[in-house]
Amino acid sequence: MMIHPKARPVISTLSIPSPIKKYFSNPNWEIDLSNNTNPYMADFSDYPDVKQASLKNIYLKAILSINPLLRGGVEVVHDITTENVLFTVGSMEGLDLLLRTFCEPNQDLVCVTAPTFPAYEHWALVHNLHVKTISLGGDSLDQIVIEDIIKVNPKMTFLCNPNNPTGTKLEPGVIQKLCDSLEGFVVVDEAYIEFSDQLSSIFYLSKYKNLIILRTFSKAWGLAGVRCGAIIADKLIINTLRYVQLPFGFSSPSQSKVRGRLLYPKVMYASWQKIKKDREKMIEELSNLKSITKVFKSETNFLMLVLQNFQKTMELLKEHKIHVLDCSASLPDSIRVSLGTEAQNQKFLEVMQKAY
Fold it and tell me: Which residue of 12, 165, 194, 195 lies most exposed, with the fewest beta carbons within 10 A?
């Protein structure tokens, strides 16, 4: 397999881990007497499928057919295949895997925005990388001064779109302009894309070889306990990541659960529509409360709120046993609130009405 030229130099000295290499070299074994497992315990005595070709096909069919639904049936030409997909143990492993494969410790620089998902900076620092933070601007914190990123020439730039914790989406054209302008990789975390009406960056992959998409089954697909994510990128990037990824992390039971969920994408789509409808109702009702200074226009399944009286509201929520995420470190007096069931949403509203 070819190795990406922007991979860390040490990667070129490695070979594919032997268990992975074995399964890729000959997919037609009838009897495998090389794995040293107990042959009498049949349920999970075999290692998980490392190629996952069938599952990847089902996955691509689901996400590529649902996205046009979200955009009113507009078709987009693409050439994405199973070679563009790598399943990971949640998108967190995907993030760590990208940094370990392409960023040289104590040398390379990665760029993150603020406020955003703190894991990007956390894992970059774990790998001894330099981190440059670019503040988001505008009333909705959806604007980036692209020149500020270009001038630091990062090896990898992380963009959460729609963003966590603000829930907002980036201004149109930002990702494409960065891909055009940067030699390094542009990593777009689409953990919440299913709740947005915007076009997924997946459809730009054929144009931009430095574009990498992170996806997860934890949020919209409701499989957080299964631990499955995906990296979708140019096949040379995917091939290179196999040199670094731990073998067999995506377990057989997890593959089975993901397959079962993917076979019924329209059911999932209906649940997303329900959440989006509830979201708009919540935005309208919360915007009229005196206890809330600002409600961010969300493209996700959560809302970011700026509170009039942060301490009082947090104490009141705790008293009613409602847990929300304190985001005051990112934005003063702010919280992030997930959309729950109708009953849960209603209880939250009732408490917020008492918070002023």
Answer: 12
The CA distance from 212 to 237, in Å, is 9
The three-point CA angle 236-242-246 to 5° equals 160
Residues 306 and 295: their CA atoms lie apart, in Å, by 7
SS3 83: helix
pLDDT tens digits, 12-39:
999 888 766 666 656 667 787 778 888 8
Q: Are 162 and 193 in contact (CB under 8 A)?
A: yes
3-class secondary-structure state, position 310: helix
Those residues with Cβ within 8 angstroms of residue 169's Cβ, 6 or more apart along the chain or in another chain: 142, 161, 162, 163, 196, 198, 299
- Environment class of 209 (CB within 10 Å of its CB; exposed 0-12, middle 13-18, buried 19+): middle
**Is residue 197 a contact partner of residue 70, using CB atoms and an 8 Å limit?**
yes
Q: pLDDT for 285-338, tens place per residue? A: 999 999 999 999 999 999 999 999 999 999 999 999 999 999 999 999 999 999
Cβ atoms of 270 and 133 within 8 Å: the answer is no
Domains of the chain: 9-263 (3.40.640.10), 267-353 (3.90.1150.10)
What are the distances in angstroms from CA 286 to CA 130, 295, 326?
Answer: 40, 7, 17
Task: Count other C-beta atoms under 10 Å from residue 199's C-beta.
Answer: 16
Measured distance CA(350)–CA(54) in Å, rounded: 47
Cα angle 139, 282, 172 (rounded to 5 degrees) comes to: 40
User: Among candidates 179, 150, 156, 182, which has minimal Cα distance to 100?
Assistant: 156
Helices (H), 127-215: 146-150, 174-181
**pTM (two decimals):** 0.93
